[in-house]
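Most newcomers find our protein records easier to grasp once they have seen one. There is nothing in a record beyond a sequence line and a structure line. Getting from the letters to the tokens is the skill we practise here. An example says more than a description, so a record of this kind follows:
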Amino acid sequence: RGKTMVQTTIYDLARKAKHEGMERSYLNSDSEWRKAVNERMTEIMSSKETFTADDVIIPLNERGIFTRDNRALGAIFTAYSRTGLIENTRTQVVCKRKERHNGYVTLWRVK
């Protein structure tokens, strides 16, 4: 019998590379930073309807809590999303952090 062939596209490869990069960033992130992120996420989920990475990163940075690569936050948001606690609104807003030079960040919704 014939086998079903699955066509891999450049988009599939890019998505896979993106998730692998976020996962590597997460695994290499500071454990105190991860703990602070989860505490901040608990605060956000009890007080906001929508939020961005800025709502997590800026307050942590103001407290002197940093990690080497903020992409680690993507892995955390993905985990929260997969468990049904938050969802991607498919909306991009201007980032408030100067180092992002008015780049865009995803707007997330608390479920």
In short: Strands lie at 50-51, 86-94, 104-110. The longest strand covers residues 86-94. The radius of gyration is 16 Å. Residues 4 and 32 are 46 Å apart (CA to CA).
